[in-house]
């Protein structure tokens, strides 16, 4: 079994060393063994978990959701169908967030268009007056 020091595994997993300690506190990774000199020694299994956590976060999963999946997988296991359902729900939430952001983007584009217009919308004119800007 390969063992890594905290700095080594942090670099390999592309995480901050304090993140390792935080993940230990949350129970996302196991508490590492210690060397005779007292250094924390992390295993390949921890490295695999860190990669999993990183990838799950990239997909938008929260640490709470990741911990729930890891805990369930250790106790009763997770079927592929269950995992697909979780992924489907996450995709639906992301689509909802994208829709909200598109609404914001449209509003910002309209604001920009109105700011540059010769005949400004009364709401935009009011905003310019509040911000003490010349129209």
From TrEMBL:
UniProt keyword annotations, A-Z: DNA-binding, Repressor, Transcription, Transcription regulation
Domain named HTH merR-type: residues: 7-72
PROSITE patterns to which the protein is assigned, alphabetical: HTH_MERR_1 (PS00552), HTH_MERR_2 (PS50937)
One Pfam family matching this protein: MerR_1
Residues passing through the membrane, by range: none
Gene3D superfamilies documented for this protein: 1.10.1660.10
Protein name: HTH merR-type domain-containing protein
Lineage: Bacteria, Bacillati, Bacillota, Bacilli, Bacillales
């Amino acid at each position: 079994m390969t063992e890594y020091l905290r700095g080594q595994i942090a670099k390999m997993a592309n995480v901050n060393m304090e993140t390792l300690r935080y993940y230990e506190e949350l129970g996302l990774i196991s508490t590492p063994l210690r060397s005779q000199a007292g250094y924390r020694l992390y295993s390949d299994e921890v490295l695999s978990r860190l990669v999993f956590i990183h990838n799950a976060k990239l997909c938008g999963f929260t640490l709470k959701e990741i911990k729930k999946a890891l805990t369930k997988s250790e106790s009763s296991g997770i079927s592929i169908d269950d995992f697909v359902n979780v992924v489907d729900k996450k995709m639906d939430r992301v689509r909802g967030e994208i829709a909200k952001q598109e609404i914001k983007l449209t509003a910002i584009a309209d604001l920009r268009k109105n700011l540059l217009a010769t005949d400004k919308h009364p709401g935009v004119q009011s905003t310019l007056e509040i911000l003490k800007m010349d129209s």
